[in-house]
Amino acid sequence: MNFELLEQSVQYTFSSESYTNGKLTRTLKNVAKDATASALAQVGQALSSLQGDTLSDAILIQKQNIKLV
């Protein structure tokens, strides 16, 4: 049996005193299947810079099909 990658998204967590509980989570869908960890980190850092906060976490979320045959 093998896995087949169907889709993936990335979840960023940003920190700032202006957010409720000090954190804000954003999820971006339709991440390219060949995206690298460094590219995803760069996107998170760019968003953080635009928002004026700190990137505290990035999680890659994958949805995979299990091929049964």
Automatic annotation (TrEMBL):
Listed Pfam families: DUF1659 (PF07872)
Database matches in InterPro entries: DUF1659 (IPR012454)
Top-level taxon in the UniProt lineage: Bacteria
Domain DUF1659 span(s) in chain numbering: 4-66
Name of the protein described by the UniProt record: DUF1659 domain-containing protein
Organism from which the protein derives: Lactobacillus mulieris
